[in-house]
Design goal:
With about 450 residues, this protein is of the alpha/beta class. About 35% of the residues lie in helices and about 15% in strands. The two termini are about 25 Å apart.
Length: about 450
């Protein structure tokens, strides 16, 4: 049994499970939501507030931190935990999602947004687009089998990302969990291109693993006086084992990433390969990038039987409530998404009392494979659990956002006040909305863990 991850209960109803991911910065009870702190901050919140919300784990982005302030200064400060004071378990993205975001159909994607996101009255379609893990996109220069070159959005400097560079940056940043460098194909992709990108991702995973093996050797041997440790040959590196009992360096753990776009054969082939590499964890990538909800959920369902039973599984970029409740049954342990925080800054708040999404009426029915009654077939065609606080109907509403919520926002403020703050563009409004949405997500996952423990999911 790995000291990094341990399963404590498996549901008798599905592949859902309870577990713990153990890091140097704390234990993550799974399934869990991963709050997004792209640039080393959960937007609008102080680190103290993030902890008070009982957020278990956050996600930082290597691309953004490399372009500013730079991996070297973060390392000099003692790593991202000390630099940001986010003293909690942290995951880091490889940067692959961002640096490939201009690689295919960029101009088309400026106007074609994700069908996996619902469109809420008062929320512009462009605000619910598929780019769920970052805001700015880099100026891509060149993609090769070796890696990617692009220009910084901040100062135009040329930056290179290769599997080795991505791992080097992530080790300097110092998050507890690192993602292998991968190519995220956008929707729609041809089978030919998706297969090429998948194979490239697989080769890059091998290089990430070999880099980690070399780091372990270097860290366990003293360099010659006045010199550096001797580099290992490709043959020597490939002979070094990489098991789920070993970390990259200083207890930082690598996840291989499953790709394959919307093609079942490629998804299964990728899952089989990535899991066989025996990295400490596995991630499912390339989802929620423009495909329909059905296509997105199919991509997870196709690989469910290939996912490891003894290692954690992360689903990249998926965080809508109905998706979480449905997909957790396939053995997903952690989910990251900017949606709760991004929607909060737009004035869209979760009001779950409007529809009990964990009742026999809601997405739980679908998660259990039960059909909806005729009268409820259209119930989930749009989120029943969101309100747009900027709408005029809330101007004189003195109720809290959610009467069943005990977060700081709902315990102290009325919808009218939040409406006022957003209309006046007061920063406090963004903070209060973010507190509420993240608090709701944490309580949602507490309920999900309880229901898995009772074999109800």
């Amino acid at each position: 049994m790995s000291s990094f991850f341990e399963v404590s209960h498996r549901s008798s109803r599905s592949k859902a499970r309870l577990g713990e991911i153990r890091t140097d910065h704390g234990v993550i009870k799974t399934p869990s939501f991963v709050a997004v702190g792209t640039k080393g901050t959960v937007k609008t919140l102080t680190p103290k507030l993030v902890r008070e919300i009982k957020t278990q784990v956050a996600f930082v982005n290597t691309y953004h931190l490399v372009t500013h302030p730079g991996a070297d200064i973060i390392e000099k400060a003692g790593g991202i935990h000390n630099y940001s004071k986010l003293n909690m378990p942290l995951m880091s993205d490889s940067g692959g999602f961002q640096v490939f975001s201009l690689a295919q159909n960029n101009k088309a994607r400026q106007h074609n947004f994700s069908h996996t996101s619902f469109i809420q009255p008062g929320v512009k379609q462009s605000q619910r687009k598929a780019d769920v893990r970052g805001e700015e996109e880099p100026l891509l220069v060149k993609i090769t089998e070796d890696g990617v070159k692009f220009r910084s959005i901040y100062d135009g400097q040329l930056i290179e990302f290769t599997p080795e560079k991505s791992m080097e940056y992530q080790l300097k940043i110092g998050a507890d969990v690192n993602m292998a460098f991968d190519e995220c194909t956008y929707y729609p992709a041809t089978h030919e291109y998706a297969e090429k990108a998948m194979k490239r991702t697989h080769q890059w995973l091998k290089r990430c693993i070999q880099f980690g093996a070399q780091q372990r050797v270097i860290s366990s041997t003293s360099p010659p006086k006045g010199g550096s440790p001797k580099s290992l040959t490709q043959k020597q590196l490939s002979s070094l084992p990489f098991t789920n009992h070993q970390s990259l360096s200083a207890n930082r753990y690598l996840y291989g990433v499953i790709q394959g776009a919307t093609f079942e054969d490629l998804r299964k082939k990728s899952a089989e390969f990535v899991v066989s590499q025996n990295t400490p964890g596995v991630a499912i990538g390339g989802v929620s990038v423009g495909e329909t909800k059905k296509e997105m959920r199919d991509q997870v369902r196709w690989v469910a039987d290939y996912l490891p039973k003894d290692r954690p599984v992360h689903l990249l970029g998926v965080g809508q409530i109905d998706d979480i409740v449905d997909l957790v049954k396939y053995g997903i342990d952690t989910f990251d998404c900017v949606e709760p925080t991004r929607l909060a800054r737009m004035g869209v708040l979760y009001e779950v009392r409007k529809q009990n999404f964990l009742s026999q009426r809601g997405p739980l029915r679908q998660a259990q494979g039960k059909p909806y009654p005729e009268s409820e077939k259209n119930l989930f065609s749009s989120p029943p659990y969101e309100i747009d606080i900027t709408q005029s109907i809330y101007k004189n509403n003195l109720e809290p956002v959610d009467v069943n919520c005990d977060c700081y926002t709902c315990s102290n403020f009325a919808k009218s006040y939040l409406h006022h703050l957003f209309k006046q563009r007061e920063i406090l409004g963004y903070t209060l909305a973010t507190i509420h949405n993240l608090w709701t997500m944490e309580r949602l996952f507490e309920k999900i863990r309880e229901m898995i423990g009772n074999n109800l999911i």
